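Hi V.,

Quick status before I head out on leave. The structure for the redesign project is tokenized and pasted below; the design run finished overnight.
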């Protein structure tokens, strides 16, 4: 009888050792090891030591696999009140961490060796191979995103709750990667085509002066060509758009607001970007461009705003630009002023003024293409941010390239099919001056039942400058709204009111003119003015989701949205969708 008790006791001790003691010892040992490895990962990433990073990631992958095994041996914890939720949460966190380490390790193995010493040209050349090797990464990213989506702060152990901001950041990054990974994979052959790896490409570059805002980002102050061959710039030029005035044969009547406030009955290339939908604006640009006798064919168009040039200059450093009266040092801080000064105050010949932007941009782009290591990483980050914030816009004649551009929202397209409410505020500075370098814009949206009030306020802190850059702000304002919306009234305008359905983008559009004052003196408070739209939203429109698109060429718009008891205040820098309202 005693032997039976001994056997039962030994069995219980054995089970306890297997399912309690051993897992807890494993978890404790692996937790200490994991903390060390995470420190080593951070250090290797900071030093851009990719071989060391790959080695540590492989070790971490093994450590997390051990933690998962130990956790599975503690499966019975799911049945314990309170601790069951904690157990499930931690297991999802560990599983997500394992999937992340696996994805990171596979990504590093797909990158070309000595990546840090390669420039942009080499990266472009290797990109199709890199993207093909990244295919195995996609399922691990999706698994990691799904696992971390199940983690909630409330059921984390106290020691991990302090890491919640980092967990949330990782979760958002993984969700974005899961969404865009297929597009990254598909981008390999497209990048080959776009960068001229297969045959030379020529692009029309339109430089937009964002100080004089237009629908796609700014007055089309200059045009030029960017020619690429096997990922290398072979030619870069720029001239004032006025130089094309006599050569353009297409001369249609101007839209009524341009005719009235810009004082020209004829529509010109410099104002061709009247539509905020970039493919529409580029189609109009091509109507002007294609009417030029012997105009060289182009594979696409890049819209480059002055804000993007500033940010790129901050990365590559000051550039020296030779002029007819000496050399001008152009920096991120003075680029806008120097371009305006050269165009209007320098006293240089027309040929010299034309050459200034082209010479400057060629120097900037050559430095960007020659950058390596950390400098290249910084520049690529600036380009991606510029594309996300619509300070740089792309349009390609190649169907696959254009589809990919629109899928990642780098093409400045208005969302045609949107679930729920929608708004885009579009300003057109028709005053001929550069107030938008200084003006700050605030939009407050209030929705009570189906009645929506859109209150737009412009604040101008700039001091008077004898009407050179700053004048009373002459602005044609349009709001793009869901189809079926009804206009109830406008306050603050001083011009005619337009309202129509834009079938190309499936939006109801309301437009009008407003003039905002400037400061009375340098010591006076900032000048401001407000325009208010009151509309009634369609009865069948869901108000649980609200898509707000940002106008290209505006660095930031300060938003406040209030729907019943729900409110949100933020700085709109990218297109945003509010949900759960």
């Amino acid at each position: 009888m005693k032997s039976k008790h001994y056997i039962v006791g030994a069995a219980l001790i054995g089970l306890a050792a297997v399912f309690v003691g051993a897992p807890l010892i494993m978890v404790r040992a692996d937790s200490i090891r994991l903390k060390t490895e995470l420190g080593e990962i951070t250090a290797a990433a900071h030093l851009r030591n990719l071989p060391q990073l790959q080695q540590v990631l492989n070790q971490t992958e093994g450590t997390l696999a051990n933690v998962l095994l130990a956790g599975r041996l503690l499966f019975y914890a799911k049945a314990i009140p309170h601790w069951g939720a904690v157990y499930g949460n931690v297991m999802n966190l560990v599983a997500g961490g394992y999937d992340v380490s696996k994805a990171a390790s596979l990504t590093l193995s797909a990158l070309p060796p000595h990546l840090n010493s390669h420039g942009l040209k080499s990266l472009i050349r290797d990109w199709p191979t890199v993207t093909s090797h990244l295919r195995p990464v996609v399922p691990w990213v999706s698994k990691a995103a799904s696992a971390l989506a199940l983690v909630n702060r409330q059921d984390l152990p106290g020691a991990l709750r302090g890491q919640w901001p980092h967990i949330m950041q990782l979760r958002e990054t993984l969700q974005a990667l899961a969404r865009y990974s297929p597009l990254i994979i598909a981008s390999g052959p497209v990048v080959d085509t776009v960068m001229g790896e297969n045959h030379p490409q020529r692009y029309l570059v339109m430089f937009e002066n964002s100080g004089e805002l237009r629908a796609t980002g700014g007055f089309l102050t200059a045009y030029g060509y960017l020619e690429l061959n096997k990922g290398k710039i072979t030619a870069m030029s720029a001239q004032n758009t006025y130089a094309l005035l006599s050569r353009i044969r297409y001369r249609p009547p101007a839209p009524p607001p341009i005719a009235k406030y810009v004082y020209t009955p004829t529509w010109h290339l410099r104002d061709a970007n009247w539509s905020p939908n970039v493919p529409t604006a580029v189609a109009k640009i091509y109507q002007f461009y294609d009417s030029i006798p012997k105009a060289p064919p182009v594979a696409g168009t890049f819209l480059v705003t002055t804000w993007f040039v500033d940010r790129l200059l901050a990365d590559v450093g000051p550039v020296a630009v030779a002029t007819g009266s000496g050399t001008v040092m152009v920096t991120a801080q003075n680029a806008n002023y120097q371009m305006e000064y050269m165009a209007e105050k320098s006293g240089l010949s027309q040929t010299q003024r034309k050459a200034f932007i082209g010479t400057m941009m060629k120097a900037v782009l050559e430095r960007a293409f020659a950058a390596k290591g950390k400098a290249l990483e910084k520049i690529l980050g600036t380009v991606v941010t510029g594309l996300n914030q619509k300070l740089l816009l792309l349009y390609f004649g190649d169907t696959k390239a254009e589809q990919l551009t629109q899928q990642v929202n780098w093409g400045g397209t208005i969302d045609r099919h949107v679930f729920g409410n929608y708004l885009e505020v579009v300003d057109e500075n028709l005053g001929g001056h550069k107030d938008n370098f200084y003006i700050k814009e605030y939009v407050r949206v209030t929705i009570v039942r189906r009645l929506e009030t859109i209150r737009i306020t412009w604040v101008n802190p700039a001091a008077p400058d004898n009407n050179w850059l700053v004048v009373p702000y002459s602005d044609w304002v349009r709001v793009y709204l869901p189809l079926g919306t009804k206009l109830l009234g406008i306050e603050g305008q001083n011009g005619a009111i337009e309202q129509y359905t834009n079938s190309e983008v499936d939006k109801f559009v309301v437009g009008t003119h407003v003039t905002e004052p400037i400061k009375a003196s340098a010591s006076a408070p900032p000048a401001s003015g407000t325009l208010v739209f009151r509309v009634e939203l369609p009865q069948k429109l869901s108000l649980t989701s609200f898509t707000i698109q940002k106008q290209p060429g505006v660095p930031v718009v300060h938003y406040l949205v209030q729907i019943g008891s729900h409110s949100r205040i933020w700085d709109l820098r990218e297109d945003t969708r509010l949900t759960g309202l």
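Above is the designed sequence. The CA atoms of residues 321 and 328 lie 5 Å apart.

G. will cover questions while I'm gone.

Best,
W.
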